[in-house]
Design goal:
The complex is a heterodimer of chains A (467) and B (225). Chain A is 52% helix and 10% strand. Chain A has helices spanning 4-12, 15-37, 42-58, 60-73, 84-98, 109-113, 116-122, 132-139, 156-170, 182-199, 225-231, 252-263, 296-301, 316-320, 322-327, 338-349, 354-358, 368-372, 379-392, 397-407, 410-413, 415-428, 442-445, 458-466, and strands spanning 77-81, 102-105, 126-129, 202-205, 209-211, 216-221, 235-241, 245-246, 271-276, 286-292. In chain B, strands 1-12-7-4-2-3 form a 6-stranded parallel beta sheet, with helices on both faces. A 4-stranded mixed beta sheet of chain B has the order 8-5-6-9. Chain B has a two-stranded antiparallel sheet with strand order 10-11. Classes of the chains: A alpha/beta (467), B alpha/beta (225). Bound molecules: iron/sulfur cluster (SF4). Iron/sulfur cluster binds next to helix 14 of chain A. Chain B: It comes from Streptomyces sp. R44.
């Protein structure tokens, strides 16, 4: 895996990728603004979401224990996995115990994070991704490039080619006369996957939320593939990061308002499934919940960085990020791309590797990600904090920053953009206006002037420079 | 396994040991964004359902059987799944073959069925959402998932609320819940919206007004075998 600078450098030269990304991010961005504007209490919802998550994280042990008790009482079984290897081992064992050698999967970042599909494959278990975009990615032997629309880097012609050449190897082939119309492509996927849904005995999912007081898991989706995987199999295994817990049933009233609008810019996504343990005569008779740490407790221990664990994976920050728009998701070298990836990945994995050390520099610190975040994660603050940490490790921060910035190509064309973005961020984000605090910060700040705050408000600047 | 449990919990405790106490959660957001007027709320539900490409109709109890029959016929539905407890009169006028879920239909049998008719637990106006809880007349989750046409009857005003915060207290988390906002859809291919990827391609919603004597929702569905 190349470090961000190299990967980004390659990505910005790919014109198709850049055009697709630009179209996608701008479309979602504009729709999101309209969906959010419908709720005049957005600021209060955002603040409530932030506080609910902060309180949960403060007493995470209590909430997880309560969750475990509630899930168990409702007929489920709870497992704890300290790292990816353990989670993979647990899931493999559970699938083995069913005697099955194939599983259907709901799109889940947690299972991507631990490399579950690859692990299952090595163990002789076929894992079928069922989200349309994930299917495109899987058939194309590719990696996802966006949290919400993982195949956003592919256009319809490429998708048709992948379906035509690959579907037959995995199951029902695509029709010979398949065109590149989205409706036909979706129909081909529907038929291809339906045969898998109907015969599946084991489903694997993640979850968007887990409610501690009731033991309820929540999966938010659009296509119905999630419902298929959660409902038709006999065994359901959900792998969920420990930070996904919320204390009460009522807390969902906040996130079910903010997540869809921030994510797909809809008032509500087409399907939300909620289940509590098992229910006689409805859905899987066996339910396993695998609670995943895998670096989350490290992030939790970082007083500045822990706010990244508030993330509800809406992907709004990706769609407004000028660096993501040009570099694309692959450049981040992790399942979490964009601004959230730049702060989450180095915390989950540490910054020992070149790619992870470069991630905190994959940003212009313009602050747009913070503005859209429905749980108010101060991404620029965490980025600067992580830069200090990387710099402390051996002073390679300065070099990484230059490389990251240069790699994003566009900066060369618009040197003013970066400067202006940072200038505004430094004021609005209450970053230190002249010099960053703490030892090691110098390695980052030395290289730049942090000039006066421009009179121009952020939004005006954004409109002028970014459209 | 037990080891990891203890280890994760102790890592959490160490991680937050010095963290400041969290600020209390203020619930000063709105309970509803809509004036408290049942007619307005119903109109908003209608509008938002339609905006997400559900087909919305209105009916009184007298016209319901005829409307159900017409909608099924218009979509060419020759067979229809009947969830346990569905009021018999809803299907009184249709010629579609009725398939009862007792004993439980297999996924393949459901796949070979054209339509399903259900009631719901709650409908949410601001988001254009109907919520199913497996209660009387709704059946288990697979019934509203596999057939290609879902026809859902919402009793107004008693099953209609304005907002998400008003809906949650009316739902029982112990039940499997499905929130449906329009038909299955994807925007994964160049962000072009396509309906009916894996769930029902068509969602017909009938807003039923002026009724009283029909059975109320809320009881558990009879055992489906
Ligand atoms: S950091 Fe905020 S904006 Fe980005 S994905 Fe997470 S919740 Fe959404």
């Amino acid at each position: 895996m190349p470090a961000f600078p190299k990967a980004a450098h390659e990505a910005v030269r790919n014109e198709t990728l850049r055009a697709n990304l630009r179209h996608a991010t701008h479309t979602i961005r504009d729709k999101r603004a309209r969906a959010v504007a419908e709720l005049d209490d957005w600021a209060a919802l955002r603040e409530a979401g932030k506080r609910i998550k902060d309180r949960t994280l403060r007493q995470l042990d209590t909430h997880l224990l309560q969750l475990e008790e509630a899930v168990t009482a409702a007929g489920g079984t709870v497992h704890w996995a300290a790292d990816a290897a353990e989670a993979n081992r647990i899931v493999t064992g559970l699938v083995r115990a069913t005697g099955e050698s194939e599983v259907v999967k709901v799109k889940s970042m947690a299972t991507q994070e631990i490399g579950l599909n690859e692990h299952l494959e090595a163990e002789g278990i076929a894992a079928y991704e069922t989200d349309l975009a994930e299917l495109i990615v899987q058939l194309g032997e590719d990696r996802p490039s966006h949290i919400l629309v993982p195949a956003i880097h592919r256009n319809r012609g490429e998708i048709r080619d992948i379906f035509r050449s690959e579907m037959g190897k995995w199951g029902r082939p695509a029709p010979d006369d398949l065109t590149d119309s989205p409706a036909e492509l979706a129909e081909a996927a529907r038929l291809h996957l339906r045969e898998k849904f109907l015969r599946a005995k084991v489903g694997i999912s993640g979850a968007n939320f887990m409610v501690a007081e009731t033991g309820t898991l929540v999966v938010v989706e659009s296509e119905g593939n999630g419902r298929m995987c959660l409902t038709l199999p006999e065994t359901l295994i959900s792998v969920v990061g420990i930070e996904k817990v919320v204390p009460t049933w009522r807390d969902l009233e906040v996130f079910l308002q903010t997540l869809p609008r921030s994510s797909t810019a809809e008032r509500m996504n087409p399907y939300t499934s909620m289940w509590t343990g098992t229910t006689d005569g409805d859905g899987p008779g066996t339910f396993h919940l695998v609670l995943l740490d895998n670096g989350r407790t490290d992030a939790l221990a970082d007083e500045v960085g822990r706010q990244a664990l508030r993330c509800i994976r809406c992907s709004a920050c990706l769609n407004v990020c000028p660096v993501y728009e040009r570099a694309g998701g692959h450049a981040y070298g992790s399942v979490y791309p964009g601004p959230i990836g730049a702060i989450l990945t180095p915390q989950l994995r540490g910054t020992a590797s070149e790619v992870d050390a470069s991630l905190p520099y994959a940003s212009s610190l313009c602050g747009a990600c913070y503005e859209v975040c429905p749980v108010a994660i101060d991404i620029p603050e965490v980025l600067v904090h992580l830069r200090e940490k990387v710099a402390d490790q051996g002073g390679k921060g300065h070099r990484l920053e230059k490389a990251a910035v240069r790699a994003a190509g566009w900066v060369l064309d618009h040197p003013g953009v970066l400067a202006a973005g940072e200038r505004i961020a430094s004021k609005t984000r209450r970053l230190h206006p002249k010099k960053l605090p703490g030892p090691g910060a110098g390695a980052w700040t030395e290289s730049r002037d942090l000039p006066e705050m421009p009179a121009e408000p952020f939004r005006d600047w954004w409109r002028k420079n970014r459209t | 396994m037990t080891d990891s449990r203890a280890r994760i919990l102790s890592r959490i405790r160490t991680a937050v040991a010095d963290a400041p106490e969290a600020v209390p959660v203020a619930r000063d957001y709105r309970t509803s964004h809509t004036p408290d007027d049942p007619a307005r709320v119903l109109d908003l539900l209608h509008e938002n359902l339609a905006d997400y490409r559900a087909h919305v109709h209105r009916s009184t109890p007298d016209g319901l059987a005829g409307l159900v029959a017409r909608l099924l016929a218009e979509r060419g539905a020759r067979s229809v799944v009947v969830p346990p407890g569905l009021p018999g009169e809803w299907l009184a006028a249709t010629e579609a073959v009725r398939r009862f879920d007792e004993p439980r239909l297999t996924p393949y049998e459901l796949d070979g069925t054209d339509a399903v008719v259900t009631g719901c637990a709650v409908a949410i106006a601001e988001t254009g959402t109907i919520v199913l809880d497996g209660g009387t007349g709704q059946g288990r989750r697979a019934l509203t998932l596999v057939p290609d046409l879902h026809l859902c009857v919402v009793r107004a005003p008693e099953q209609v609320v304005a907002s998400v915060p008003l809906a949650l207290p009316r739902l029982d988390p112990a039940r499997p819940l499905t929130w449906i906002s329009g038909p299955s859809a994807t925007s994964d291919i160049e962000l072009d919206r396509v309906e009916g990827v894996h769930g029902p391609r068509t969602l017909e919603v009938i807003l039923l007004t002026g009724g009283a004597a029909t059975p109320t929702p809320g009881g558990r569905a009879p055992s489906a075998g």
